[in-house]
Design a protein that fits this description.
Length: 517
Amino acid sequence: MLVLAVGLTLLVQQPSLAGAAPEHTACTALRTLSAPGFRVDTAEWVSTAEMPAHCLFRVTLDARPSGMEGMLYGTGIELRLPENWNRRLLFQGGGGLNGVLLPALGNVSGFTSALARGFAVVSTDSGHRGRNAIDARFGMDQQAKLDFAYQAVARTSHEAKSLLQRYYGSPPDYSYFMGCSTGGREAMMAAQRLPLDFDGVVAGNPSFNLTRIAANQIWSLQTITRIAPKDASGHPQLHQAFTDTQLQGLSAAVLQQCDALDGLRDGMINDFQACHFDPRSQVCGTGGAPGPEQCLSTAQADGLRDVFGGARNSRNESLYGRYPYDTGIAAAAWRSMHLGTATSPPANATLGRDTLREFSLTPADPTFDPYTFDFDRDLVRTNETASINDAVGSLLSTFAGHGGKMIVYHGLSDQAMATGALTAWYDRLTPRDAAGPQAYARLYLIPGMTHCAGGASTDQFDMLTAIQAWVEKGQAPERVVASGKAFPGVTRPLCPYPKVARYDGGDVNEQRSFSCR
């Protein structure tokens, strides 16, 4: 903070630099801010047909070597300062385990980006640069782990606001945070640990309890390994635990039982809480089970019950949360996460394993065998990381008290993150009134949507406009209109939990034919 403040003071002392001088001159002058612990990597004016004219500024704070090939420590920040600023800042969340500096554009699926709307947009690599966004090795370093958990978000927020003040001559009127997956966890963490920094946050499919997610991935890995057929050498063939035909049959069976609970058969299960599907109904020879190519063995059905029920200890206590049965079980994303293919192992056996070994466990244990993880004995080894990283806090009195608003959304077919864990968190939020925390926080659950997007879903919606209207105009989002490529010409309302979209009659393709109740 101090380095930036001093550097910017020198900048604005140059006459007319941030005022009457051409914007590109003020932008390139930002290169002079380099100082120990504050390395300016880019300061250039960008003007193309694809995006509005803006200043692109990149800086690395406190860069240091890691001692590991392909890994550097230090907080990378990208800030884009539009020529026609709307006096708003959007902090764009990251993804995976971060470690890459994503372009700060503020993209909104199917809609105009935040940068194109006039927002200044900032992003961060969260304190390290790895080989890719799933490189977990940074978790063995104390400061890098703290940066990933929350400190990089705090520092990036403060540095960005300081730069806006100096560059434009005024602070932002409104500050927002929006992200999905890890970016969703960061958004929740911002409301919990930086309650005065943001006016509105949007958290999509948040990995808010990452240490429990990693443990749950190992639970699924152990379960699938247990039921998978073995090759001639006795090695389990995880990708053969279920055939695609079986998964398609399961998806069809869930739809057959639960699709019409909201009043309309349309390929989407809105009333997921009333859906009590049991995979044992699909066991071969059971009344109503499908044909021989789609029916399940008892071991397969019980394995699915364990996977969808989430990790549990020997006392049958839930350690994470439940997944709803939804159409996404037939999606490629579900197979990629839990089963893999003949040539690629499931993500649970790679990302889940490495996140557990190198990030969740304290101390890190890069050679730990995930198949030996004991859900009674070993979960305590994740507690230290959980205490700094997991955005499970429920007290948002300061955030709500200064007028902060929060939108959380989640796909009901998320292949990695359980709906039940998120609804349990939301049900604990404080402060609350008789209707729950609806005055400042709302949760939207999207049928069929896999992680952040995709699936047989209406996965295109503009939560940035929704949070702006709530913060700046007091217009609480009673419904958010959604569409998607999976259902051309169809719109649906996303309703704030625990309400669901119910068909009232009329045009089946039109969201106005549904009410939230």
